[in-house]
Amino acid sequence: MSLAEDARRDLRLAGLTKRYPNGFVAVKSLDLVIPQGSFFALLGPSGCGKTTTLRMVAGLEGPTAGTIHIGDTDITHEKPFKRPVNTVFQNYALFPHLTIAENVEFGPKRRGVKDTASQVKEILELTELTEQAAKKPAQLSGGQQQRVALARALINRPEVLLLDEPLGALDLKLRRAMQIELKRIQEEVGLTFVHVTHDQEEAMTMADTVAVMNEGRIEQLGTPYDLYTNPHTTFVANFLGRSNLVKGTVVGREGTGADAVVKVDMHGTVVTIKASRVHTESSEGWIGIRPEKVLIQPAGTPLDAPGNFFSGAVVSEASYMGVSTEYHLRMPWGQELICFEQNTGRRGGLVAVGTQVDVSWRPEFAFLLDSSQDAGAGIEEE
Amino acid sequence: MTRVGRWIGRHLALALGLLVLLYMYIPNFIVALMSFNDASQSRNLYQFQSFTWDNWLNPCAPLGMCESLRVSISIGLLATIVSTIIGTLAAFALVRHRFEGRSTANLMVFLPMATPEIVMGSSLLALFVAAGLGGQLGFWTILVAHIMFCISFVVVTVRSRLSGLDSNLEKAAMDLYANEWQTFWRVTFPLVFPGILAAALLAFSLSFDDFIITNFNAGQTVTFPMFVWGAAQRGVPMQVNVIGTLMFIAALTFVILGEVASRRRARGKVSAR
Question: Carries keyword Plastid (chain A) (predicted)?
């Protein structure tokens, strides 16, 4: 493929919209730039529009409005078989009547590549499928089928590889192994991977950049670290991991620049939150703190806490989970907060249910979200 | 329980299965046996008299039998080809496209199968007569009637195969640079083909076998089932058993070949290319 030197072949979506004939809008004017060579995840609950977005990029569905570009090439209305894009389907969609080798060489053959044998050999080696070349898909295990789907797409060296819940059908152990495998292959081939998933852990372990989608929109985009530590909406705060959200009233601002903080009254105690972590303009807000950032200590004993401090909480529940313990803390104002504590052994046992405890967290870990948002948004019901 | 009792218990299902199979195949064995019957000396044609090769050496001896067979086979082949093409296209439309009146169409396709043949045969005759074809009853009216009732069976058979087919496979083919034409011939068709083949075999046997509808619309033309029916009034010539045996062997060969092919496919031994 002849590309202009140095031309960035980023995948760019502009104003991309999908409205179905029944009036349902699956994707609402999406603007997104996915840098060339990155491992990008579209994360969201089912029905958030992530798969529809993927299908529009693949050309399997036509957008109602908006454009799709790779570099300077407009592919919005290009036929799927003319796009430099390949897809790994959710249930692999391997051709059952063809052998593994025939499945893999399907793409190159259609593009008129004459000698596919060496390419097939190479890609089967990369995906550790050499032994399976002559078998039919039905004779392979789930993990092997997954690798065939990957090999069948990768052999074409697409500019963008789309992965639609590629690990959804695998069991937990295999999924972990394949996550590492996928990441390795992506680094090896250096293609742009766009990975659609509802599994936040999967998105966070593999992707460089994650876009959290909800109801056809992107809620927040960033590195897994940024998204987790500094969520901008209650949806992101709850969908990625868990969060304690407590109602608070802004009472003042102090400092400037990087040192700027916002003072928030939280049920009688004033807590400070860094201005860069405040995501509301109103005077009310949800103070958010991740459970593992919450520190507890039985009342009366010293607590390492240079910051926000509360007393009068009672342990209402303690679930021991081996590596950590999950405590539920009933706060004086009646709300239950969650606290994860690593079982380092320093306490020499668990804090018993009913114990009065002091609660604290470092101010730099807290964040403030808009009070108009639903504190329960993004909590997945099992 | 005694040892014998246990042995019976273990083998009862197998024994019953074999009995049922025997029950199903005895008529075919009798037909095969009777095809070697020398009936020339006897008045009772339904009893085995003595062994002869004559029936097999002169299968066309009974007047008009082979002519009726030729008619049945040609109608069968033509009806199969036409109904398979129309029925397959209809099945694709019904499964793959959303259109106004689709569920009604699904029901309408099914109805002819549920209609008693005697009703269908007489109403077809009424139709042909009303259309002024009363004088031309024969090969072509039989063919039209056969195509008509075969289509339903083809649609139903192909439709079930097609609806079991993951439509993501076609999307995957398109994603892998196959255009619409290549997608159809390399992915869709090979996967639906077993259904189409089954439908064609079914159509042929339905057409070849049909007596009631044919009898209404045949005019002076005599198909094989009509010949056998007519001959049975006087005593069936033994050569009918020869034809019966040949048909049975042909069907058996088809089934065995199909089985062998599908087993070989399942073992994935078709890679040499």
Answer: no
State whether residue A111 sits within 8 Å of chain B by CB. Answer: yes
Instruction: Give the amino acid at B211.
Output: F
* A136 touches B: beta carbon within 8 Å: yes
Burial class (CB in 10 A: 0-12, 13-18, 19+), A159: buried
Tokens of A98: 């063809």
Chain B residues with beta carbon closer than 8 angstroms to that of A134: 268-269, 271
Reduce the DSSP state of residue A102 to 3 states and report it: helix
pLDDT-derived band at B1, boundaries 50, 70, 90: low
Cβ distance B241 to B34 under 8 Å? yes
* Cβ B175 vs Cβ A57: under 8 Å: no
Structure token pair of residue B22: 């025997």
Which residue, A87, A89, A94, is CA-closest to A145? A94
Joined together, the tokens standing for residue B17 give 């299965």
Phi-psi label, residue A207: left if phi above 0, alpha if psi -120 to 50, beta otherwise: beta
- Mean pLDDT of the residues in chain A: 90
Q: What is the model's pLDDT at position B267?
A: 62
Distance CA B167, CA A53 (A): 19
Sort out which chain B residues have CB atoms less than 8 A from A80's CB and list them. 171, 174-175
B178 neighbourhood in chain A, CB within 8 Å: 81, 106, 110
Nearest to B271 among A94, A101, A106 (CB): A101
Among chain B residues, the shortest Cα distance to A61 is held by B171
Q: Work out whether strand A336-342 and strand A284-289 pair parallel, antiparallel, or are unpaired.
A: unpaired
Query: Does A58 lie at the interface with B, CB-CB under 8 angstroms?
Result: yes
Are B235 and B193 within 8 A, CB to CB?
no
Which residues from chain A sit within 8 angstroms of residue B188, using beta carbons? Answer: none
Please indicate whether, in this complex, the C-beta atoms of B176 and A59 are within 8 angstroms of each other.
no
Burial class (CB in 10 A: 0-12, 13-18, 19+), A142: middle
Percent pLDDT > 70 in chain B is 95
What b-and-e string marks burial along A276-306, b requiring 16 or more CB atoms within 10 Å of the CB?
A: ebbbbeeeebbbbbbbbbbbbbeeeeebebe
A360's tokens: 């604290």
The closest of B56, B11, B13 to B237, measured between CA atoms, is B56
Do A301 and A355 form a contact (C-beta atoms < 8 A)? no
The SS3 of residue B134 is helix
To the nearest whole angstrom, how far is the Cα of B68 from the nearest Cα of chain A?
41
Domains of chain A: 11-229 (3.40.50.300), 242-370 (2.40.50.100)
pTM: 0.79
Residues of chain A with pLDDT under 50: 1-6, 382
Q: Which of A96, A145, A89, A99 is nearest to B192 (CA)?
A: A96
**Contact assignment for B176 to A152 by CB distance below 8 Å:** yes
Assess B272–A contact: CB distance below 8 Å, yes or no. Answer: no
Domains observed in chain B: 62-236 (1.10.3720.10)
User: Inter-chain contact A135–B268, Cβ cutoff 8 Å?
Assistant: yes
